[in-house]
Amino acid sequence: MTDKLIIFDTTLRDGEQSPGASMTREEKVRIARHLERLRVDVIEAGFAAASNGDFEAVRAIAGQIKESTVCSLARANDRDISRAAEALAGAARSRIHTFIATSPLHMEKKLRMSPEEVLEQARLSVRFARNLCGDIEFSAEDGYRSDLDFLARVVEVVIAEGATTINIPDTVGYAIPELYGNFIRQLREKVPNSDKAIWSVHCHNDLGMAVANSLAGVKIGGARQVECTINGLGERAGNCSLEEVVMAVKTRRDYFGLEVDIDTTQIVPASRLVSQTTGFVVQPNKAVVGANAFAHASGIHQDGVLKARDTYEIMRAEDVGWAANKLVLGKLSGRNAFKQRLQELGVDVASEADLNAAFARFKDLADRKSEIFDEDIIALVGDSARAA
Ligand code: KIV
Ligand code: ZN
Description:
Layout (H helix, E strand, L loop, with lengths): L2 E2 L1 E4 L15 H13 L4 E5 L5 H13 L4 E7 L2 H10 L6 E8 L2 H8 L3 H16 L5 E6 L6 H13 L4 E6 L6 H14 L7 E6 L6 H10 L5 E4 L13 H10 L1 H4 L1 E2 L7 H12 L16 E2 L2 H9 L18 E2 L7 H10 L7 H17 L5 H14 L1
Parallel strand pairs: 1-10, 2-3, 2-9, 3-4, 4-5, 5-6, 6-7, 7-8, 8-9, 11-12
Helix pairs in contact: 1-2, 1-11, 2-3, 5-6, 6-7, 7-8, 12-13, 14-15
Bound molecules: 3-methyl-2-oxobutanoic acid (KIV) and zinc ion (ZN).
Zinc ion binds next to loops.
């Protein structure tokens, strides 16, 4: 039997923490509906105790989403947890996600609590939450910079109190793939009741390694939930990007041996929706969802792709929601790509000599003009017919 990898989307919570990405309740509901169509397993809808607006957004999403589990974040205190439970009351499936920091730095400087106090607060909070909801996720904030033995004690206690998912964030994007994967593995080995919970990874992108770290947490560490966002939206340099992690697991199924339930054809529409809603433009060379992710400009690549797409494509554009791949015509393009475009435009060229003449004119034009439009090509063929 193949293992399943749970996809936990936090675009509406951690993604929204990106400066300038705040969304209205209606916008969040629209995105949540799309995430459900994408078939994400868990939608983190917000942080109910953060504001009345966030509470209402979580409540609205909980009322409308039927297939995905709807989750609210809550600090490890009774007030936050009660607000989360209240906002989630109408959900078909709900999860309370409670967290407390466990690194020496965060405990001492931010929380001003001793490790024993943190451990006790984690225990009591999960106990309290478990009475309100059957699905409890516990996160050890700044988990990756925590002492392994202390973290193992915290995790053992919260699992004993009924936490069903254990999330170990790399809150500040400090991890390196191999080290993070080993950290999760060692932690699981140290926790005696580790198999009573699903292990989860949550990586930030400060060093550009959020996706690689998450995948190492899965492959080396044995995590079976990845927390991610559409377009990698999130605090500072962002979170692990959903589209990249999903397509990595699907494309390299030979290596990961895992299934995801995601309907990948909804990825590009989801990316566009999030980009339009937040105003955060997707860079053209972004993997999977960037405008150039399936575009070929060089003649050698275009020729290869026309003969067999696998030569330069490891995924199909159509599988992630693009209409098709693209052969971009420019100064690097070859004769085959030019001929193919003429066929697509329904332009007949009488002879090979006409085609060669038109292609020569096209190359001259492409040296002068960075973008060649279909109209340019039609005009070129006319010119070459006249010249012949
Ligand atoms: O990055 C982080 O530590 C978080 C937790 C609250 C899960 O977002
Ligand atoms: Zn985070």
